[in-house]
Design goal:
The chain is mostly helical. It has 14 helices and four strands. Strand 1, helix 1 and strand 2 form a beta-alpha-beta unit.
């Protein structure tokens, strides 16, 4: 199948969009970029417009359209990308897939329908809640009404509504502290100092980890990756950041809007979450 005419509907700051862009770059496959202004960041809320909902009735990004095929969800899209031919000699999945590999991919993906803070992939949105709330509170009331009337996912309606009218999101990160540290220790145990990446070569798991760890950096929580309890994770994170795809598919998509929001977030956000994470990490039993 020809790799031409692949259109990616994505958002600059969306974790799942980042995962897909990294996969495209790693495989060396070009795409037509269609930036979607998400309803929690922009008044336009383009992901709730009829045209986009006709592509993905869930109203979420990323989505790709390739010839007559439409695929949504980062895990499904990365799997599809890996089946396409490219000039780069890289496979994002091992030749012999295992249940363990599939579980790691699932656990590091933000999967719709999976309970929040039940995996490392679903902990990061919880940690991001105060940042998202900062953006939601900047929206005009008519944009919130659009979310209430049009968003197909009931849980997101409730979350965005509560973010706009209350400050409940400030407490959301506490839900994920224990699980995040459990997952961090689990990752540290799985890493092998002989390998640069999670397995012997760069895979879908590493794509997801790259994006999750980068979100920690956005939230000024990166320090939790560089501790005496996580020496292998610290080295692993350095290796991920050294890949060209990290710059080209994540950092290069930061505009003045994202940078300005981060600077404002840093002014109002406290360091309490980082301290709580450290306390939980260092009190975690040694085996």
């Amino acid at each position: 199948m020809s790799n031409k005419n692949i259109t990616l509907f994505h958002a600059n700051w969306s974790l799942c969009s980042q995962m897909v862009r990294v996969a495209f770059h790693e495989k060396g496959i070009p795409f037509i970029s269609k930036h979607i202004k998400l309803c929690d960041q922009y008044p336009e809320g383009q992901n709730l417009d009829k045209k986009f909902l006709s592509l993905n009735p869930k109203g979420t990004v990323p989505v790709i359209k390739h010839n007559e095929s439409v695929i949504s969800g980062s895990e499904n899209i990365v799997k599809y990308i890996d089946t396409l031919k490219s000039e780069k000699n890289i496979n994002l999945y091992p030749s012999k897939k295992s249940d363990d590999f599939s579980k790691w991919v699932a656990d590091t993906t933000i999967t719709e329908g999976v309970n929040f803070a039940s995996t490392i992939g679903t902990v990061l949105p919880v940690f991001s809640a105060p940042l998202i709330q900062l953006m939601v509170k900047k929206l005009p009331l008519k944009s919130i009404l659009k979310i209430l009337l049009r968003h197909p996912i009931k849980e997101r309606k409730i979350v965005f509504f509560s973010m706009y009218f209350t400050s409940a999101a400030q407490k959301f990160p506490n839900i994920g502290i224990k699980k995040f540290i459990e997952e961090l220790i689990r990752i540290e145990k799985e890493l092998n100092k002989e390998n640069k990446y999670f397995n012997e070569h760069f895979t879908h798991i590493d794509i997801n980890m790259m994006c999750l760890f980068h979100r920690l950096k956005d939230l000024k929580l990166e320090e939790i990756l560089n501790t005496s309890r996580t020496p292998l994770i610290s080295e692993y994170w350095k290796n991920l950041q050294n890949r060209e795809s990290y710059q080209k598919s994540i950092l290069d998509y930061y505009t003045s809007k994202e940078n300005e929001i981060l600077q404002e977030f840093y002014l109002v956000n406290s360091t309490k979450l980082l301290e709580k994470l450290k306390d939980q990490l260092y009190s975690f039993p040694h085996e």
